[in-house]
Write a structure and sequence with these properties.
Blueprint (H helix, E strand, L loop, with lengths): L14 H8 L2 H11 L3 H9 L6 H13 L3 H9 L12 H18 L12 H15 L4 H27 L8
Helix pairs in contact: 2-3, 3-4, 4-8, 5-8, 6-7
């Protein structure tokens, strides 16, 4: 008996992606700006809708982030907040982190950005401090490249979280 081939039906579009694909452009841009504050990035993703699946949207978000101009990057960095620290971090660690952030901002003119998703909360402080210290040795152009990559990773994580129902992209600050 010959093997039967069954036509596989494509998986349905998740409701959050369906909404993303059909909501008014202004609403989607506002959502995207909460993930990464670059108007050019948000408009590019909005203009290329609809996306067939989350992976396609995230790939487009990555591509748009790689294409940020220096002005786009400055716009995005200006809107970033310092990474959130886990509860219970000692005050001495807060002071060390505050001093490191101040040195970083003085050297580069914007807040330090780092994506620490895949790092346990217990290790986040060490990762942030070590990241600042090592990146303080970068020249400004090299650091812009590193900061742009961290922003891309943050935007990707925030966008995926938003579409998985975690709410506004800006709620994810690490």
């Amino acid at each position: 008996m010959p093997a039967q081939t069954r036509a596989e039906s494509p998986s349905p579009t998740p409701p959050s992606l369906e909404r993303f694909n059909t909501e008014p452009a202004e609403d989607i841009e506002r959502t995207l700006l909460s993930c990464l504050h670059s108007l050019r990035w948000a408009r590019r993703l909005t203009d290329h809708r609809p996306y067939p699946d989350l992976d396609s949207l995230l790939a487009a978000a990555d591509e748009a982030a790689y294409d940020l101009t220096p002005g786009d990057l400055s716009e995005a960095l200006a809107a970033e907040a310092l990474p959130a620290l886990p509860d219970g971090v000692y005050s001495a660690a807060h002071m060390a982190l505050g001093a490191a952030h101040a040195a970083y901002e003085s050297r580069f003119g914007h807040v330090f950005v780092i994506c620490v998703d895949h790092i346990s909360p217990d290790e986040a402080l060490n990762q942030v401090l070590s990241g600042i210290r090592s990146r303080l040795t970068n020249d400004p152009e090299e650091e812009r490249v590193v900061a742009a990559e961290e922003l891309r990773r943050l935007a990707r994580k925030r966008l995926a979280s938003h579409l998985r129902g975690a709410g506004n992209c800006a709620t994810s600050r690490n």
